[in-house]
Design brief:
single chain, alpha/beta, two-stranded parallel ribbon, 22% strand, globular
């Protein structure tokens, strides 16, 4: 794995300050939900790596509960439509999606 891009970070609780500092020190790309809301999905697609293999892991906690009611940590202001945008961004980037993982779904 060459790069890690995290999309949709928001709220407090799941990450300690040291977790964010370590991710930045490892040169992970951290994109908040507010960044996506401010700049739009086309901007988000432009932030994705291009020309390589991509593995997508979706943590439902980053999605807005209006589109992911099964999230274990429902907070307003999450992402909506981001999966379509990321898929479109990968298709236009010369990258190839090698796998997808969806996590943190509360089935109760």
């Amino acid at each position: 794995m060459e790069t890690v891009t995290q999309i949709g970070l928001r709220g407090i609780g799941g990450s300690r300050t040291s977790d964010v500092e370590e991710a930045r020190a490892a040169r992970h790309r951290l994109i908040t939900a507010a960044d996506v809301h401010d700049h739009g999905q086309r901007w988000l697609c432009d932030q994705l790596p291009s020309g390589g293999d991509v593995f997508i892991s979706i943590d439902c906690d980053g999605l807005d509960p209006s589109v992911a009611p099964g999230t274990g940590w429902p907070q307003p202001g999450g992402l909506t439509g981001v999966c379509d945008a990321v898929n479109g961004g990968i298709e236009g980037s010369g990258s190839e999606c090698r796998g997808v993982h969806v996590g943190r779904i509360n089935l109760e």
